[in-house]
Amino acid sequence: MNQRRILQAAGALLLTSTLLTACAFGTIASTEPNEIEYNIVEDGTAADTVLSENDASTVMTTADWDETEAVEIDLDQESDTVTVTEAGTYHVTGDLAGSILVTAADDAKVTLILDGVNIASSDGPAISVESADDVALVLADESINTVTDEGSAAQEDITATIASEADLTIAGSGTLEVTGTVEDGISSDDDLAITGGNILVTAVDEGLRGKDSVSISGGEITVTAGGDGIKSTNEEDAARGFVTIAGGTITVTSESDAIEAATDVVIGDGTLNLSSADDGIHAEQNLVVAGGTINISESYEGLEAAVIDISGGETTILASDDGINASSGESIEGSAPAPMAEAQDGVSLTMSGGTVTIDAVGDGFDSNGTATLSGGTLIINGPVDGANGSIDTASGLDIVGGTLLAVGSAGMAESPATDSEQGWLAASATGSAGDTIELLDSAGQSVYSYTATKEFQSVIFSSENIVNGETYTVSVNGTATSVEAGTALAGGMGGGSAGGPGGGPGGARP
Length: 510
Hints:
The protein has one helix and 44 strands. The protein has 510 residues and is an all-beta fold. The longest helix has 7 residues, at 46-52.
């Protein structure tokens, strides 16, 4: 095998990495040398708490490389494996039937500026980092870069088309097209960070994988994956294994979860378009939505985690099972009313802001623990099947504030908790897609109006305008039903049946 080693001159520029603290992502608030502070969440919020409990993610920035000091690598003049052994900045151009291998010192900072490269490897990853401290792939302005592995599935040494055993940052404004024919598209055994670029990944398994973390703060990212779309896998360290998104436009089509984390997922900003044969977003511990726009156009379950906190953003979910499911992943006894079911410890579903619209075949808003609505707008287009409900909780839905409209089947329809601070009403009213649902107070004034998207047999509503004990009218295309606010549906669950553990179309998660 022909290998050429690329060494920097003795006076090489030594780069320094930037530690991007986990409690800080978003817009640049400080430009001190090698110190960048980002903020996407308010101090004291659930998102801030989750991020502060996670370790720092390592991200290289423009302060860490200098194009004027770059060593030129013309791949047209190379063959097989080009090896980079020293810290520094490298400007890479041309085509290569082979690979780039980084074997720098454990404390080395290496930047590869990709400027119109085309790398195809038939023996291992197209770009491989075996040793270094931090590595950045910078996509040069207006450049188009393609990398692919062309090996067979039997080759155990191909873990990804771009595979790094060090922290990996992808930055710049150019284009990077990655094709993984064996396993993952882009992977890091440490932190994977994306701050910019137009990145297109097609992989037979995971699209983007960072063992310790995946952090995205910019760029336009498109992932098509036979496994999970974006994934962090470290389940041994409670402060690792997380995914944070603070910006960018992300489109994922995946056969498994679109986004999955061994610990936490925090969405602070950005636009996410997700289509998944399994969950849209799955976290084993905490799932926090503090902002951004999330559109889940296909999923088994839209959002799933043990603890789910929604405080901002605009989220739309289409699910073939539950829309949102807070669950520990363990089976729970009882499938009848809440008094017969045991709520799971440490499981909660909380919404305090933002807008969430759910269209679910199974349960709409499901918690195997506690459930609270204190702000924002929650619209649930629930199931037609009487075995599921628009609301399904183990301990009752406590409504403190916000606006709730839940329409769905009647058989398992659950009314909010009777001791909720905010008033609510529940009515047995039937209709079809396209029908107008209008809520009127005792004076005949309209309180709320909505056009149904599917067949329904029950309507549940809450807002600051509803007063328990007063009489309201629920009108469906002019057919009126009179109800007293604060009175549960006759025959309904009135506090919640315990939903299942979730897991996906293939069964419960291990």
